[in-house]
């Protein structure tokens, strides 16, 4: 990039602004990191009124820089040097254990951390057992984090480090899993998983400062290569927050990361003792306060007896009609149904009582925090909305609308409530591809719908696009394709009536995610006066078949007018 281009430059080609007031242009002009002109090439050159570099896009298109509103950046950096256990379907368990053995080698005696395995994709359809982990990692404590980050497996050394035995009571909101004989299996779920995660992290963080800074910088450059210019990190404990602040001082963050605070003892612990949302260095400001309402595989779902009966009948029909044992296995992995005092059936883990949640949301808002609530299941979403409705006056005074993270299992009345509350649904469309085959094996009982993107948009809900990385990949183009096709890895189509257009999906990853981070006045569209966060693609994605969107190349990424990535 020349000095002239760094100060003032023009991008000439198809400009897709994501601004409804002026959706297309032939050129965009940038000076000193800000967008100053939009229109025809002649108009933009004239508006700059001085020396400027001209970049011809040659058939390419420029869009606002992509924003990943829910991306675990600090853990991506923290675990970057450990084996990535994400795997394809039908991977043998031995292959996973081989990676664990490799990670356990070396002179260190500290914790071993690995992340990414998915029991449903392993050939054996189960997580590794305690004795298998002890053979693979006999001496060092092992924290083997599942792909969802809500479950894990520990070896005997890790159980000893935690002070847990087969007689240890389960922590509230979690489980130390035992077999029928009462012996430890190695699995820990939800609250137990997060306690072990924090213990392993705290044991390692004091020796990883320099490595974290380097790996945070490297991860940022990976995102820039995908056109991502800003992320929201939805779970930053105090120890990693200090590393963010150091990275900001030493200019080692190549893109903006919004830090969403959580407590130190567990990611489930909320933290409101930080400065309010929007404060801090511009490259790493404080984001929304994060509260976990339910689990992942054990998300909080509430249904009637009639819904369950209909769903069970449908499951058996799928098994008989060609779904085979996949549907039955999927059903068997679900947690047990419990009849509540309301006469309905409840499943999964709900971490909060309603009164306590109401108080927490109100307290966060009164301290100046935007609020983000992790809520996958319909029961958790309802609880989160109730808290938002009861604290609406306080929430209206903070920057950024309240967020519902994931919003996976939603019925039409909840969609209406989300819209009426002005809440933002922070969604992960790539889940439909990456996890879709498991989801297709056991769809939710109607009228609950699986990630109803179309229904939410039609109701007026703002969608914010995200990845939940490292749970799933951060390739925005692949996620846009997934939102438009709703096709799984093995070719199943999940609730096709809930598909949205390519343009609507890109709007979620630009304007929608900017709103989710409370920065829509500064980024998210290509508009005069806004920061020049831009991505140049090899083709206009709005003119391409949705099936081919993920084949488009990212050619350039600009952050505040700075050329942060170039394919050349």
Radius of gyration: 24 Å
Number of strands: 25
What is the count of helical runs?
20
- The neighbouring-strand order within the major sheet is 3-2-1-4-23-24-25
The overall pLDDT, averaged over residues, is: 93
The low-pLDDT segments are: 1-5, 322-332
Q: The biggest beta sheet, please?
A: 7 strands, mixed
Distance between the termini: 11 Å
Protein described:
The structure is a single chain. This protein has about 575 residues and is α/β, with parallel strands linked by helices. Helix content is about 35%, strand content about 25%. It is built from 20 helices and 25 strands. The chain has a 7-stranded mixed beta sheet with strand order 3-2-1-4-23-24-25. A hairpin with a 4-residue loop joins strand 7 (about 140-145) and strand 8. Mean pLDDT is about 95; it is low at about 1-5 and about 320-330.
Secondary structure layout:
Blueprint: H1 3-7, E1 8-16, E2 24-31, E3 34-39, H2 41-48, E4 53-64, E5 66-68, H3 73-78, H4 93-104, E6 112-117, H5 130-136, E7 142-146, E8 151-154, H6 156-162, E9 174-178, E10 184-190, H7 191-205, H8 209-225, E11 228-236, H9 238-249, E12 256-261, E13 289-292, E14 301-303, H10 305-323, H11 325-333, E15 338-339, E16 345-347, H12 354-366, E17 371-375, H13 378-390, H14 392-395, E18 403-406, E19 409-410, H15 412-421, E20 424-427, H16 431-434, H17 436-441, E21 449-450, H18 453-459, E22 462-465, H19 476-485, H20 502-516, E23 534-537, E24 554-559, E25 562-566
Parallel strand pairs: 1-4, 5-11, 6-7, 11-12, 13-17, 17-18, 18-20, 20-22
Antiparallel strand pairs: 1-2, 2-3, 4-23, 7-8, 8-10, 9-10, 14-16, 15-16, 19-21, 23-24, 24-25
